[in-house]
Write a structure and sequence with these properties.
Number of strands: 10
Keywords: Signal
Radius of gyration: 18 Å
InterPro entries: Motility-assoc_lipoprot_GldH (IPR020018)
Pfam family, one: GldH_lipo
Strand order of the largest sheet: 1-10-4-7
Oligomer: single chain
Helix content: 10-25%
CATH architecture: Sandwich
Distance between the termini: 45 Å
Shape: globular
Organism: Siansivirga zeaxanthinifaciens CC-SAMT-1
Number of domains: 1
Order of helices and strands: HEEEEEEEEEE
Protein name: Gliding motility protein GldH
Length: 164
């Protein structure tokens, strides 16, 4: 009985801790299949927050021990409401020199919060679309990794910048 009460109390505090993330403006995850195909694009659509403040943008990833690379290449495209498009090829470090996966988490699932853009002002009203695609290559090979294993979820996050 006491053990169940402690567990319930832990769950309540965990929920309150996560729910009190006051910097988050947009934070959505989407699951990917067991293997993330190189042509599979994960898409997020968000309404522009107010146009007077700057925001930090992040790509969030959850990966398992099945992820076998030290880095990750992504193509991230932002499509503005009036059609302008910005496309970036980004590289992120996913493991330390010993091969231990980076990120947070107590299980074999690690969560990574990866910088995308800093101090972005959403000047255009309307809906922004963010497309994320894996662009992994194996060393010395021209063709990309067709089915990337170990990535379970891809997310996109917009945060208010702390004005201290």
């Amino acid at each position: 009985m006491l053990r169940n009460s402690v567990w319930l109390l832990f769950l309540i505090f965990s929920f309150l801790f996560v729910a009190c993330d006051s910097n988050s403006v947009y934070d959505v995850y989407k699951s990917v299949p067991q293997k993330w195909h190189k042509n599979s694009i994960v898409t997020f659509q968000l309404k522009a927050p107010d146009s007077t403040n700057a925001y930090n943008l992040f790509v969030n990833l959850r990966n398992t021990n099945d992820y076998k690379y030290n880095n990750l290449f992504l193509i991230v495209e932002m499509v503005f409401p009036h059609g302008k498009t910005i496309k970036d090829t980004l590289e992120y470090k996913m493991a330390d020199p010993t091969g231990k996966l980076l990120g947070t988490g107590f299980t074999d699932v690690k969560e990574n919060k990866l910088w995308y853009k800093e101090a972005v002002v959403f000047k255009e009203a309307g809906t922004y679309t963010v497309n994320i695609q894996q662009a992994m290559r194996e060393h010395g090979k021209v063709n990309g990794v067709v089915d990337l294993e170990g990535i379970t979820d891809v997310g996109f996050r917009v945060e208010k910048i702390n004005q201290e």
